[in-house]
Every structure is written in C-alpha cells, then in structure tokens.
Amino acid sequence: MKNETCVFCAIIERNMSAAVIYEDSNFLVLLDKYPINLGHTLVIPKLHYDNLLGMPSREVGSLYSLVPKIAKAVTEAVHADGFNVGQNNGKAANQIVPHVHVHIIPRFNCDSPNGKWPGRQLISFEELLIVAEKIKPFLDFSSLGDLYP
Description:
Layout: H1 7-12, E1 20-23, E2 27-31, E3 41-45, H2 57-78, E4 82-86, E5 102-107, H3 125-135
Antiparallel strand pairs: 1-2, 2-3, 3-5, 4-5
C-alpha cells in the first residue's frame, strides 16, 4: 500500500532520490536529508502506515529488530560516542512525515555543551552519499534471519 502524497513512499518507489544504506523487501534505511548529526538515519517500512498505531505488531517487531543492527553500523562508521533512537507519532509529537519511521541519531560527547539538542543541518546530497558509503561496510546481517520469525 502506497500513499501518493507521501515523500517516503516516493523515495521507496524511486520517484525521489535518497542516500540509501540498506534495503530489503520490507524496509528501506536512508540518511536523513536534514540530519541532527552526521549519520542521522531513518528506518522506514516499505508499506505505508501513518503512525505506529496502524502498523501490525509483527511488523513493528521486525522494524525494531532492524534498529540495533543499523545503529551499530552508524555509530561505528561515524565514530559516535552514543546514539538516540526516536519515533514520533502525530503532529503533537513532532512527526513531520506521516509515514512510520525510526530515527537513529549518532551523538557525540561535544555535540550539546549547553545541554540542548544540536540543531538540524543542511548538507549536500553528495555529502550524504559519502556518509552512506562509509556506513555500508559496517552493516552485519549475519543474523538477519531473526528479523522475520
């Protein structure tokens, strides 16, 4: 199921470009176009669900089984000191794109000296592609079978 007006559905259908780091038949993983930190990644189901409440629990489980595998690769590739995982549902929760997606945000010891979150950045698509290529070698799906019980 696709949503004709959804930016993520357009990316999944290859009608818009993205810096993709992983794809399988159920999920697409790409770099956020406006990252909070370099390596800010989005894990997206290929089927369109406006928010997590509309997604079957088995698919939610598969989505979240993928998150640590991607987070490990991202943090290693960008040499992050830690990472945040976030998932927003609804405008009140600051969900900008109404298609389920999980944010993996690399964090660095020096990125919030005043205690506030770092702001979003605008980086070029070429820079995103370079970061995507840095992350790919760190992906390890040797235990991928546990994603789809």
